[in-house]
Amino acid sequence: MGANNSNLKKALVDEYNRVKKAERDFLVLHDLLNFNMPNLIQLQLTHIGVLFVMDSTYDGKYTLDKLLAFSELCAERARFYRPHEFQAQIQGYCALQLWNCVASKEGKETFEGWFTNLIRESEQVCYLDGHPGIEFTSRDTIQTVYEILNISEKHGMDFQSFFDLLQRVGEEKGTMDLENEALDDYAPVDVLQDFSSSFILGFREGLNLDALD
User: Fold this and answer.
1) Taking the CB of residue 33, how many other CB atoms lie within 10 A of it?
2) Which of 32, 58, 142, 191 could disulfide-link 114, Cβ–Cβ 3.0 to 4.6 Å?
3) What is the pLDDT of residues 91-129, one digit of tens each?
4) What is the C-alpha to C-alpha distance for residues 179 and 105, in angstroms, rounded to an integer?
5) Cα-flanking dihedrals φ and ψ of residue 82, to 5°?
6) What residues have CB less than 8 Å from 18, skipping those under 6 apart?
């Protein structure tokens, strides 16, 4: 992999420029869904551990410098992996880094803050009439969260059930009204924040750390 660093860098720069929106100087989660990693790095970027490690400042913004730094990490780690094991091993490595963060003194707050930034940057949150001061995010963003957290496989829940659950929790918290049709395609951001806390509790079971054994 080291001999091809210049080709890898060029491929990453070209793909970054392809998916980046003109109004931003960074990528967000939705952009990464359309990001095709070069053949030299066979890796799915939307793994939760990969997303966390790649975002070194935990602000939900994926700059070109972050992508290049992560590619260097991949090149370094690839020396220890067999090619056909690379994706599972690097995902396991990133999951372990996330676990180490979560297990630290302020790790829970770090993860929750990062997860919220990931949502906020992915799609600008909105404020809806009748719910002053409450941030909402759309069904599309929640669908992405559902996919990156692998809710279907880990919890056996389809997307609509997951979305309905978030809305019901929002109603129980008093942050949304299920009878309001204007909210049909939205859920409160604070409910997703609460969900991220629950996610941490089941973190070790929810991520594939066995790849490191």
Assistant:
1) 14
2) 58
3) 999 989 998 888 888 888 899 899 999 988 987 788 888
4) 41
5) -75, 145
6) none
**Given the structure tokens 């979560």, which residue do they identify?**
102
Three-state secondary-structure class, residue 183: helix
Q: Structure pTM?
A: 0.83
Task: Tell me how far apart the alpha carbons of residues 44 and 80 are, in angstroms, rounded to a whole number.
Answer: 19
Q: Which residues of 101-139 are buried (b: 16+ CB within 10 A; e: fewer)?
A: bbeeeeebebbbbbbbbbbbbbbebeeeeebeebbbbbb
3-class SS of residue 44: coil
Q: How far is CA 75 from CA 85, 111, 118, 129, 209, in A?
A: 14, 26, 25, 49, 20
Give Cα 105 distance to the centre of its chain: 22
- Lowest mean pLDDT of 13-27, 44-58, 70-84, 159-173, name the range: 70-84
Going 43 to 49 to 52 to 56, the CA torsion angle's sign is negative
CA distances to 57, 114, 204 from 95, in Å: 17, 15, 9
- Helical segments of 33-188, H only: 48-54, 64-78, 86-102, 107-122, 139-148, 151-155, 159-173
- Give the up-direction half-sphere exposure of residue 122: CA atoms within 13 A in the CB hemisphere: 25
For residue 6, the tally of other CB atoms under 10 A from its CB is: 8
Strand, helix or coil for residue 102: helix
